[in-house]
Amino acid sequence: MKSQRNPLLFAFLMVASLFFIWGFCHAMLDVLNKHFQNILSVSKAQSGLVQTSVFGAYLLVALPAALLIRRIGYQRGILVGLVVLAAGAFLFIPAGLVFKTFWSFCLSLFILSAGLACIETAANPYVTVLGPKEGAAGRLSVAQAFNSCAYIIAPTVGGLLLFGREVDANNPDFHPLILPYVVLGCVVLAIFAAFAFIRLPVIAEDGDPAEAGADQTTFRAPLTRQPHFTAGVVTQFLYIIAQIGINAFAVNYILENAIIHPADGDPVTSPLFAWYGAVTHAATPEATAAYVVTIAMVLYAVGRFSGAWIARFIQPHLLLALYGIANAIVILFAIADIKMVSWLILPLCWLFMSIMFPFIFAMSVRNLGPQTKIAASFHVIAVGAAGSISAVLMGWLWDNFHSVGISFSLPLVGFIATAIYGFIYPRLLEKSGRTA
């Protein structure tokens, strides 16, 4: 048993390290929106095209990546993704030193994200099959916790480098933006070298080497006839709209809620916000808001570790439903826009979002056997489609209606859908079993 488990544990730890990389890439987006608004004078809706560039790559690359991985295997698929990711990171050099345009950065992010899409298409399903099916959701949640650790670091890096000083829109300096991506590219190349010299366990398509003698039920009906899968993809789409939209405009929301700008008079800042800025030595209000997002990301990481542990005592589908309800309540406070109060409640959203992607993913690909790789690509496509429209749509609503309530109604729909999927999941899984 020991010799059987150790290779799986080593493989899990190696693949989990990849989650840190794409977590850093995604978390940096949360400060890029506001940075581009400041340094390139783009609107909220235009800055949302940062997310469109990233998740548009997911939308276009996911299915070809799944077909490639099905042909060459998980490990080689990861290697391909790492090479493309590094290329996109290094493209920030000409984008910032030569072209110096918003669109050049969007192109760099698109290529970088094509690599991320390939990695995610391979890594997420691989983690779910590295052990018993019953532990798949918790196992993926732990792997995603590595992702969350990067989410803690990235806003702090962004706050220090991008918001650490006043910007001159007439003479923009992109060196602070280039540095983290050059470092990222070098780290990715080092990880590529490590993966090139190890050998990950090969997982059989119809089973799981760690489940010898256990239930190896496989639903063989087409994916479109398996409601636990199709409903999971739809739920993932709606949830990602919520997550990306909140992430994209968290800094904007915190600034506008914690600092009141009367029509006649000086701005009034929340005492707690001002105190936190002083404690963190933030150079600008934007930096203080970015550091508030760092607290949210700490809650995100705590939620992923604790969620995997709680799932040992509460069924994952029920835990997902309860977290969906909790987040709907948090978003209602955000929609209420209680000045100097709602910004304090908003970080709780990340605590309850923490388990949603891994749990929805693991629950929806359960018992899919040889269809798992293709099924995983549909989740990445859902992420791409949702991410491509979410930030732009929320930004457009905010710009045109000047209403937090209208823009944040999108995340509310996503969390309600997540709660519903959690509650009805056992019936969906049973129905899929009957069609198999």
Task: Output the CATH homologous superfamily.
Answer: MFS general substrate transporter like domains
Q: What separation lies between the terminal Cα atoms?
A: 32 Å
State the helix count: 18
Q: Evaluate the radius of gyration.
A: 21 Å
Shape designation: globular
User: What is the CATH C level class, in words?
Assistant: Mainly Alpha
Give the rounded overall mean pLDDT: 86
**Structural class determined from secondary elements:** mainly alpha
Going by CATH, the architecture would be Up-down Bundle
Largest sheet: 2 strands, antiparallel
Describe the fold and architecture:
With 436 residues, the protein is mainly α. It has one domain: Growth Hormone, Chain: A. The protein has helices at 2-39, 44-47, 49-72, 74-90, 92-99, 102-128, 136-161, 175-196, 227-258, 271-279, 285-310, 316-336, 342-345, 348-353, 356-364, 372-401, 404-407, 409-435; strands spanning 259-260, 268-269. It has a two-stranded antiparallel sheet with strand order 1-2. Strand 1 and strand 2 (268-269) form a beta hairpin. Helix 6 packs antiparallel against helix 16 (372-401), helix 9 (227-258) runs antiparallel to helix 15 and helix 9 (227-258) packs antiparallel against helix 18. It is globular and about 65 Å long. The model is unreliable at 206-215 (pLDDT under 50).
